[in-house]
Amino acid sequence: METNTKSKKYDLEERTFNFAKNCRILIKKIPKTISNIEDGKQLARSSGSVHSNYIEANESLSKKDFYFRIKICRKEAKESLSWLKLLDTDDGQREILVIESTELMKIFGSIITKERNV
User: Fold this and answer.
1) What backbone phi and psi angles, to 5 degrees, belong to 108?
2) pTM of structure
């Protein structure tokens, strides 16, 4: 059973990595306007932060630290959603990333809710 738990952690680690990577791919494709450049920089930071904080959560020294990092993941996923919506592009990849950031927010929110109920 423990192997299954590690597998799920790895899947979310890979998922957050792919989210950050796909945000960067989108940023490279969007029109290079002043606002897109600035919004793209912010998106790169926040999407990368989702992934890096998830890694930190998995390496946390205490439950309190774990949930603190997960809360940051949720916050950064929400921020990424905002930057995605601000990008001036009709690229269909943006809509896929909007859905993914929303799903990540829900996953992290669920983890936080479980912690409150324990």
Assistant:
1) -65, -35
2) 0.88
DSSP the chain: -HHHHHHHHHHHHHHHHHHHHHHHHHHHHS---HHHHHHHHHHHHHHHHHHHHHHHHHT-SSHHHHHHHHHHHHHHHHHHHHHHHHS----HHHHHHHHHHHHHHHHHHHHHHHHHH-
The residue whose two tokens read 């990008």 is 87
Instruction: Please name each of the domains of the chain with its CATH number.
Output: 2-117 (1.20.1440.60)
Closest CA to 60 of 4, 111, 20: 111
Residue 2 pLDDT more than 50? no
